[in-house]
Design brief:
It comes from Halorientalis persicus. One of its GO terms (molecular function) is transposase activity. This is Transposase DDE domain-containing protein. By secondary structure, this protein is an alpha+beta fold. The protein has a domain at about 10-80 and about 305-435. Helices cover about 35% and strands about 20% of the residues. The chain contains 13 helices and 14 strands. The chain has helices at about 15-25, 40-50, 55-60, 70-75, 80-100, 170-180, 200-205, 220-225, 280-285, 295-300, 310-335, 355-365, 410-415, and strands spanning about 10, 105-115, 130-135, 135-150, 155-160, 185-190, 210-215, 230-235, 245-255, 265-270, 380, 385-390, 415-420, 425-430. Strands 2, 3, 4, 5, 6, 7, 8, 9 and 10 form a 9-stranded mixed β-sheet that branches. A 3-stranded antiparallel β-sheet has the order 1-11-12. It is globular. The protein starts with 9 loop residues before the first strand and ends in an 8-residue tail after the last strand.
Length: about 425
């Protein structure tokens, strides 16, 4: 269990590092029997590699007091993918529900994330998937993710590893099952054309109203999209099959008007289950709400460590650590650093994800300020919880002072309660203003 710093005190770089360690440390790492190290030592190296956007080898080589890279990788090779997947998703849920109000309904986006890979497979060919050319390769490790974008907060709800030799619909069902267990209601499920699949649409309909972008493939679909006017209709997937699926189809005609140097009409289709009371244009506007997940991808890349290992489980672990760090930053930014005000919380521009990573890096490396530069920088908050902003002007990493009394009052920070049938252990802040 992790505890967030009290919003009425001072948040320090040390606090940020400590809570990051508390969040990542529960990830299951069997380890090496007889080793003097423990899993926490290994995860600290992984955290440092992620915030550095560096490799484990470079991190161990450049940082005093860390184990050698061979030892770290030997430990990481003992990871069990299924157990890691389960615990990491519980941790993602715990962080998400720290700042999401369970009484409000949500719009959830699901997507596939490709992590480009150069080289051969580790154990079998099913580990690697194909993708469009990116970073000089067409092979990747494939992940399915779910996000909720609320008031600019791209919160990761779930992530799972996808093998090439499994049906993608199986991976999507795993993610949807986890999303379904969240305590809030889901209004819409948004997905791109990669999820245009009969099984996925059927499963999504059981949870919420799915809006899925339709690929322009097949003669019947091309006929539906051959128009100059937006309209609502119905479409039957696999028309002559027992698996045929009938669903509402929104056909939208728009004009590019020089966007990205393109002109003329563009016609798009969307699966519009559960939103037939909307016009085709309104359905497209709903779908565009998923564009916020691009912000999450950019942040994820800022905390993704580099590795040359071929082990897909180690690579998956690094992606999960990056996602957990991103969610943790959102928790601290929204529940601790944000300034309460009428009409919504004032999110400080200074407390960026890069700053968050810099503070963790500074603490893990044990860096000290240069001689003559003794300025402190931090987020100062008065007893009313109103942030006074980041102090100091030096661009170098900072450290703060914080009262230990903040850590000794867990009852003031919040209490614990269970959510759902999967025994979510979530932190309830008991401060409605710190949740959205």
């Amino acid at each position: 269990m992790f505890s967030i710093p009290d919003p009425d005190g001072y948040l320090s770089a040390s606090d940020v590092k400590d809570v990051a360690e508390e969040v990542i440390a529960p990830l299951p790492l069997p380890g090496v029997e007889g080793s003097p190290l423990d899993p926490g030592d290994i995860w600290l190296v992984v955290i440092l590699a992620c915030v550095n956007q560096n490799s484990i080898w470079d991190t161990c080589n450049d940082t005093n007091g860390t184990p050698c890279d061979d030892t770290v990788l030997t430990w990481l090779h003992t990871l069990d993918r299924d157990w890691l997947d389960l615990v990491a998703n519980l941790l993602l849920g715990r962080l998400a529900m720290t700042i999401l109000d369970p009484d409000r309904s949500r719009i959830v986006s699901i997507d596939f994330v490709d992590n480009p890979y150069h080289g051969e497979h580790c154990a079998d060919e099913g580990e690697l998937c194909s993708m469009a050319t990116k970073d000089g390769t067409t092979t990747c490790h494939h992940y399915c993710t779910a996000y909720v974008v609320s008031n600019g907060k791209p919160v990761t709800l779930a992530m799972t590893y996808v093998r090439n030799d499994e049906d993608e619909a199986d991976a999507v069902e795993r993610v949807l099952a986890r999303v379904e267990n969240y305590p809030f209601e889901i209004d819409l499920l948004l997905a791109d054309s990669g999820f245009y699949n009969e099984r996925v649409i059927r499963r999504a309909r059981d949870i919420a109203a799915p809006v899925v972008h339709v690929p322009k493939k097949g003669e019947r679909m091309k006929e539906k999209l051959d128009t100059h006017e937006s309209y609502m209709t119905t479409y039957r997937m696999y028309k002559d099959s027992e698996q045929g699926l009938r669903f509402p189809l929104a056909v939208v005609v728009s004009y590019q008007n020089g966007d990205r140097g393109k002109h003329g009409e563009v016609v798009r289709g969307y699966v519009a289950c559960g939103v037939t009371d909307r016009s085709a244009k309104q359905v497209e506007r709903l779908y565009r709400k998923r564009s916020g997940i691009e912000t999450s991808y950019r942040l994820l890349r800022q905390a993704r460590g580099i590795t040359t290992t071929r082990d897909p489980v180690v690579r998956f672990a690094i992606m999960l650590v990056a996602a957990l760090l991103e969610n943790l930053w959102l928790v601290l930014r929204w529940a601790v650093v944000a300034r309460p005000r009428r009409g919504g919380r004032d999110l400080p521009e200074e407390f960026t994800f890069k700053t968050f990573c810099d503070w963790i890096r500074h603490e893990l490396r044990g860096a000290t300020s240069a001689v003559g530069d003794q300025s402190e920088r931090g987020w100062r908050a008065g007893v009313t919880g109103t942030g006074r902003g980041l102090t100091g002007v030096s661009p170098r990493p900072i450290h703060w002072a914080v009262s230990d009394s903040c850590r000794q009052r867990p009852s003031k920070s919040g209490s614990y309660r269970l959510f759902g049938a999967v025994n979510w252990t979530c932190l309830d802040l008991r401060r409605r203003s710190s949740r959205d």
